Each structure stands twice: as C-alpha cells, then as structure tokens.
Amino acid sequence: MVHLKFTKHPGRIGHHIRAGGTYRSPEYETVAISFNGRKLKLLVADTFRKKFVGLMNCKRLGNNEGMLFVFDRNGRHGFWMLKMKISIDIIWLDEGWKIVHIWKMAKPCKSIFSCRTVKPDADARYVIELKAGASSRMHMKIGDRFDAGSW
Q1: How many alpha carbons lie under 13 Å from residue 61 in its C-beta half-sphere?
Q2: pLDDT per position as a tens digit, 106-139
Q3: What count of other Cβ atoms lies within 10 Å of the Cβ of residue 135?
Q4: Which of 126, 123, 40 is nearest to 91 (CA)?
Q5: CB 34 within 8 A of CB 40
Q6: Could you tell me the pTM of the whole model?
Q7: Distance, CA of 24 to CA of 76 (rounded, Å)
C-alpha cells in the first residue's frame, strides 16, 4: 500500500486549469510523488466527477505537473482524449506503483466519432497524466516504479 501526502488546501497546478464550457473544474487535492528522483506535483482525481473532468480544461502543464487518477480496484481502465486541449502522456500503474502501460503523445480528439479509448495490457490501480513527452524525457518504461512513500 502507498501513502499519499496531500496538501492542506485544495490546489490547482500552476493555475492553468480553468473552468470552461459545460464542464466546471472541481477543486483537487495535490500530491507529490517522484520518479527516478524527479518530484512530480499531481492533482488527485479520486471521485467520479474529478475523473470525468480530468485535465479537459487544462491549457498547459508544467514539466513536473499532471494528474493522478486513483481507482477503488485494479482494472483495465480506459482513457480517451475527448475535449482535451493539449497532448499528454498517460501512464498506467499497478497497486505497487509499477508502470504497466504507457500511451505517449496522446492527442486531443476533434469528435466523439474519431476518439479511441486506450486500455492497458495489464490491470492498473492508478493512472498518471503528464505533459506530452514527459515519459520519454524521464526515460520511463514498463516495469519501472514510481516512489510514493509507504502506506
């Protein structure tokens, strides 16, 4: 099990996530985890609404910013890029924070009809979305682990 240390106050990454259109961005807690010594600041999506909205209103991300999706159970959780404004990397992790799948440079969809859903090849408990190209810059590969402390 992993212990996530949340900030005391709800946060937004770099104030770049904006409410817009029909979907209003909820307030998110933030958590810091690391990969190969590089600290990442992630918004935590742990409710249906937060997972549904995700980063769809985000216009830009910093190099060490993103979102952590926390699921109640392991599964092959699918993601798509409908209504996204930016390209991102999507990393699926098992309950031990090991990378089980990476979707690099996922691009926004223009229409629901041209938007594919991507699922991992193995069960995952967590999903991290980062700025496009981050997984390559950090040399992430399947089998690598994130460091999120101990639960």
Answers
A1: 26
A2: 999 988 898 989 999 999 999 999 999 999 999 9
A3: 23
A4: 126
A5: yes
A6: 0.83
A7: 27
